[in-house]
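Comment thread on ticket #2218

A.B. wrote:
> Attaching the input chain for the structure job we discussed in standup.
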Amino acid sequence: MRGLLSIAGLNSARSRVFRDCIISQTSKALELGATADEIFEACAVAISMGGTLAWSKVLVVADYLRTKGIIE
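C.D. wrote:
> Ran it. Output below, let me know if you need it in another format.
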């Protein structure tokens, strides 16, 4: 059981790192002048290549853009 908890903790930490990386990349794209449509176009490509795993990460992008007031 202890090993399973360690793995769960590692996955949780890794998920947080991925989230931070996605937000950082999205923020940089905005700084460089990307529009929400362009960002979502890149997300669509990621989904077409990565399937449902990529889709869950696009939700992070959408939440970030929503908190910035860029989308509703």
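A.B. wrote:
> Thanks. Noting for the ticket: The two ends are 43 Å apart (CA to CA).
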